[in-house]
Design a protein that fits this description.
Pfam families: FtsX. By secondary structure, this protein is α+β, with helices and mostly antiparallel strands. It contains 31 helices and 26 strands. Helix 2 packs antiparallel against helix 8 and helix 13 crosses helix 15.
């Protein structure tokens, strides 16, 4: 072992106690990094397991895919049969296929069973205690019978359901609902309402469904319910095929490919269908689900970066303290010929050891946190069977991050140790702190640039035409508010951190006025001590600044969301009561009963069709279905361009929200094409020509067939509406929804009931609740209850973010402790002299507590000011999407300020104890 390594390891052992807080900071940051990857891997693994169970077919026959529905010249190529060439775009839409293809497919050699894919949304199972069963991962109601086989389901009791009064349940579903084989239960159907059923079968599945409730229904019941909802059952999304090659067992990928090729050869040329391997279909589903869950990992990584960023200040302060205490030793090394590079290496070796230890603890901690989350979810009825263990690449990445942060934090102190002249180091003299003027000017410039970005974001948000936007370049005007918001926030944070050292003295003068007058000696000493090392003081406050800026921003946004909802309900919602479905839709029978009440003047619902393709829009989007009654009796737009009410009365025209119109450059008079579950007629015709390569007559016949299966229509935009909820949606009426075949996709999550004038609303509520109660899934809410429910949902979402931020605050507290330890180490003799001339231990503790508190308050004030500004900016940028009211939670901010005082006092305890542990004579003689 080289002398440099030996010295580095020896110094690391000697300073082990000082590394504790740095190790904690690294461990927490690394735990976040590793935990984010492990949790994402856990989710992806669970999705793959669930997909292999739910989509266990050997081959799937499905519609053709249109890669770009807004390009009428694009051909609708059949999806490739191999898993390696499946569609890369999970947003591609496919046309439904004719159910009569089941008989054609069943006749193909090698096919054991061909099963139409049929399922129901919005079905609710009632628990044994009479409460609607719910799950974080939803409810799946599938058609199951001897003909509708499901290879992954294995009955352990009973068998398939027959008729509308029987149901089969998965073992996990039966257990969570408190039901058993032969139990009497209730099911709530979206159209048929509540039905009494008997549990005629209990089945196990090949893999856990992560707590999802899985029901098996008679296929005839599923078909009847779909028809009652207005859904055509002559076409289906896909057909699941099981092969016979392995005696009913799953086929290999080669066998799947051979069977898919055989089915493709048997499909009629005008079927608008293609066969793909089961593995190809599962890969496509996994990619789609993974994309939907993709937001989770970046969210956690944001807090990982925050924790490591804050931790880097602690590491830098730790090594500054270590270098200062070891300066004489380094001087001796230099005097006997050790090079500056070797001195630098001794410090870097300590940082390397620190990073290794902290990263190792972080890996174990992060893995343990994920396993704890899995255990908590399992206890709450959402078991995960996928592995949460980190892979070797993830572990190596975690160690790399922890070591990199340690080395980054130690570089400047190591450089100072290496470049200090030996004579100066031997005498332990220190250079005066360099001026902070240039750094402050740079910080002001960055902060102003950040403000300019925020102005640009506001200008974009409030400009409906990119050609007349804030810049002469339409492309730049059309980038949206996300990038300017994010870049502006980053510039502002860095600018404030750079400017902070120049603010230390003004802050000390203002914040220290009260303690300086209340405690004339200790208060003045504390204020003076802050200004000695302005950069170090500012860096310590920066840790709290970043954390509190995010807390303040979240607080303002949360408060503004709740205030905006309250404003909308108080000033715009005209209905007397709101009915909210605990499932995806309110059952139609319940709505019919409510409409028949004598005192009811109107019942309006919000109906949403998901996944509609719109010309010029890359991804499918939700489309709202309504009529004039919704605007007349529930919520009307704040203002509009064009003929708003005339458009609602005309089934050839549509209303588009201001935000959506601005995003895609739409204007009154433009036309848009909506496509649901099909391809455009032009694309289908071209596909027919490409596939057939025959006579014009056959191409025309294929085009006519495409017309019959396609669900595409073109509408004129005759109104652009502003104000919630109109601003960010496309609105069509029921006739247009039928024309597009959207009945099977409609979700009715809420209904708005208006009573006649003079009605006793309290008594009327009783009637509503008596109707809703037997359906188990409907909540009746007044205006205040509706606001409260919305606020509660917002609070639950933000609670998790606050919990993550709390760890960053803990790290920031460690930073203050570290800074005070360093400051006291540098002032050992000074404190000894104060004690020698009569300063009491109580006064020393008070001085250090005041220093700590002033640092905490400075970081908190800067953070809250920046956070409130960021929250106000976000509110302004998204005002058209519902954030109409700016609400600053003053009480909450005041609580944060009070907590910062408590944090300062808490952080001062250990440094004060250390200062008083040194005997007075030893302290005086220490320098």
């Amino acid at each position: 072992m080289s002398p440099v390594v030996t010295i580095g390891v020896r110094d690391a052992r000697a300073h082990a106690s000082r590394f504790v807080m740095s190790i904690v900071a690294i461990a927490l940051g690394v735990a976040f990094v590793l935990g984010s990857f492990c949790f994402r891997g856990l989710l992806d693994g669970q999705v793959r397991k669930m997909t292999s169970t739910n989509a266990d077919g050997d081959v799937y026959v499905q519609g053709l895919v249109t890669e770009d529905s807004d390009d009428s010249s694009a051909s609708a190529e059949p999806a490739a049969s191999s898993s390696s060439s499946s569609s890369d775009d999970d947003t591609d839409s496919r046309n439904n296929i004719d159910v009569s293809l089941v008989s054609t497919i069943s006749a193909v050699d090698g096919v054991q069973t061909a099963v139409p894919a049929r399922s129901l949304d919005g079905v609710v199972l009632v628990n044994s205690d009479g409460v609607a069963a719910s799950s974080m991962t939803g409810t799946s109601a599938n058609a199951m019978s001897e003909e509708y086989r499901w290879r992954s389901a294995h009955f352990v009791q009973g068998g398939y359901p027959h008729g509308e009064h029987e149901v089969a349940l998965s073992s996990d579903t039966a257990s969570s609902a408190g039901l058993a084989y032969g139990s009497q239960a209730k099911i709530v159907y979206p159209s048929a309402g509540v039905q009494d059923v008997t549990v005629t079968g209990i089945f196990d599945l090949d893999d856990s469904q992560a707590g999802a409730l899985v029901l098996g229904l008679d296929p005839d019941v599923v078909i009847s319910e779909l028809q009652a909802q207005g859904t055509s059952t002559d076409t289906i999304p896909r057909i699941k095929v099981y092969g016979s090659a392995n005696g009913g067992a799953a086929l290999t990928e080669k066998q799947q490919q051979d069977l898919a090729d055989a089915i493709n050869a048997a499909l009629p040329a005008d079927s608008q269908a293609t066969a793909v391997t089961g593995q190809s279909h599962r890969d496509e589903l996994n990619k789609s689900y993974s994309k939907q869950l993709g937001f989770i990992q970046p969210l956690i990584l944001i807090f990982a970066v925050l924790a490591l960023f804050v931790g880097s200040f602690i590491i830098a302060n730790t090594f500054t303290m270590i270098v200062r205490d070891s300066m004489r030793g380094y001087a001796l090394l230099r005097s006997i010929g050790v090079s500056p590079g070797q001195v630098f290496a001794t410090v870097i070796i300590q940082a390397l050891l620190l990073g290794l230890v902290g990263s190792g603890i972080g890996v174990v901690l992060g893995w343990g946190i994920v396993e704890a989350i899995v255990a908590i979810l399992a206890a709450q009825g959402t078991p995960f069977t996928a592995s949460a263990a980190p892979t070797v690449p993830i572990i190596l990445l975690a160690f790399a991050v922890g070591i990199a942060v340690s080395l980054l934090g130690a570089t400047l102190p190591a450089r100072r140790a290496a470049l200090a002249p030996p004579i100066q180091a031997m005498n332990e003299t220190t250079n005066p702190e360099p001026p902070v003027t240039r750094r402050a000017i740079g910080g002001i410039v960055l902060a102003l640039l950040g403000g300019l970005c925020w102005w640009f974001a506001l200008a974009i948000a409030h400009t409906s035409d990119t050609a007349a936007g804030p810049t002469p370049w339409p492309a730049l005007n059309g980038i949206g508010v996300g990038w300017p918001l994010g870049v502006g926030a980053g510039l502002l944070v860095v600018g404030v951190i750079m400017l902070a050292p120049a603010l230390v003295r003004p802050f000390g003068a203002v914040l220290g006025w009260l303690p300086a007058h209340a405690f004339r000696v200790t208060g003045r000493l504390a204020v003076r001590n802050l200004s000695r090392q302005r950069r170090r003081t500012a860096n310590t406050a920066a840790a709290l600044f970043v954390a509190l800026a995010i807390v303040g921003c979240i607080g303002v946004v949360t408060s503004s969301v709740k205030a905006s909802v309250s404003d909308i309900v108080d000033n715009n919602l005209q209905a007397d009561y709101v009915l909210v479905a605990n499932s995806t839709r309110i059952p139609e029978p319940a709505l019919e009963q409510i409409r028949q009440l004598d005192d009811v003047a109107d019942v309006e619902t919000t109906s949403v069709a998901m996944g509609v393709k719109v010309s010029g829009v890359p991804d499918p989007m939700p489309v709202f279905v309504t009529d004039r009654g919704f605007a007349d009796t529930v919520i009307a737009p704040d203002s509009w361009e064009g003929d708003f009410y005339g458009t609602l009365d005309d089934s050839t025209r549509v209303v588009v929200g201001e935000t959506t119109a601005s995003k895609y450059g739409w204007h009154v008079g433009d036309t848009i094409e909506l496509t649901s579950d099909g391809v455009t007629m032009a694309a289908a015709a071209q596909q027919a020509q490409q596939q057939a390569q025959e006579a014009q007559q056959q191409a025309q016949e294929a085009q006519q067939a495409a017309r019959q299966s396609s669900r595409t229509a073109t509408y004129t935009i005759d109104a652009i509406a502003k104000g919630v909820p109109w601003s960010s949606n496309i609105w069509i009426d029921a006739t247009q929804a039928d024309e597009l075949g959207l009945s099977d996709a409609l979700i009715k999550p809420s209904a708005f009931v208006t009573f006649r004038d003079g009605t006793d609303t309290a008594a009327a509520r009783g009637e509503l609740e008596s109707i809703a109660r037997p359906y188990y899934t409907i909540s009746v809410m007044s205006h205040d209850e509706y606001k409260s429910a919305t606020s509660s949902m917002v609070d639950q979402v933000m609670l998790g973010m606050y919990a993550l931020l709390a760890l960053s605050l803990v790290i920031a507290i460690f930073g203050i402790v570290n800074t005070l330890m360093l400051s006291i180490s540098e002032r050992t003799r000074e404190i000894g002299v104060l004690r020698a001339i009569g300063t009491s231990d109580r006064q020393v503790r008070g001085m250090i507590a005041i220093e700590s508190t002033l640092i905490s308050i400075m970081g908190t004030v800067l953070g809250l000011v920046a956070g409130v500004a960021a929250g106000a900016e976000i509110r302004g940028c998204y005002s058209a999407m519902g954030l109409s009211v700016l609400s600053i939670p003053w009480l909450q901010l005041a609580l944060f300020l009070v907590c910062s005082i408590a944090v300062g006092i808490l952080a001062s305890l250990a440094p004060a104890r250390r200062a008083l542990e040194v005997p007075v004579l030893d302290a005086v003689a220490s320098e």
